[in-house]
Amino acid sequence: MKLAITAALLLATANASADQRIATFDLGSLDTLDALGLSEQVVGVPKQSLPAYLEQYAEDSYTDIGGLRSPDMEAINASEPSLILYTGRQGEWEAELGEIASLLNTSLQGDDYLAAFDTNVRELAGRLEAESEAEEALETLHAEIDAQRKALSDAPRTLVVTHNGGNLMLNQHPVVHDVLGVAVLEMPDSVTSETRGTRTFTPLSPEAIGEINPNVVLVVDRSAAIGDEPADADTLTQTLSDAGAENAQVVMLTPALWYLSGGGLQSLKLQIDEVAAALN
Residues 23-37: pLDDT tens digits? Predict the structure, then answer.
């Protein structure tokens, strides 16, 4: 009898996991679900923010649950999710979202980006009975990371910046510097940081970049990612050259991939590929 009860409980748990209905604001988690073959359990996504590699989720079979900073509570409720995935972008709506369904904060936490990434993938897979698929995917990804770290051991002097409304800011991106081990460049004394609320920003003028003297400038274009005026690579190259960074190669990274959808099994692999192509 005890064995029969245990078997019934295990079956009920598996069925509950298989029946999960997921609304996700986290595009990285969406691409992890997609990579693990769990797309049928997705019921709602923020369609206006989807990157090209996730464009299949714009289909009518998925509910549009609003913007990353403007959740549509009525639409979320109508999609009848059993689990809502969210990040800090939706933090102010946490209580309201929690009234609709169970929540999982999938923000990458802590100083070790890759460890946090692995934890997120395993947490999500564990809730959906996809542990073995997740471990296989992580093993493949880590092998790729190890190979690229070795290939980039002699990478050129690399500066990562964020473009926003015509301005540039330092972006010490963890995928570039922590995951792939590309050295962080020392900032000159002329570069100072600013604190706004709980966040710290480091503006970079063209002249400051000239002092830094990078060989490669990787640009995360926030403006392009959110539909504003994008940066022009040729204009930026000329501006930097005029300011003393005449040897800098400007590489525009895929905007939505780097600003909106990082942190997923597919997006991390795509980001690694872009950096490797730029620096090898």
Answer: 999 999 999 999 999
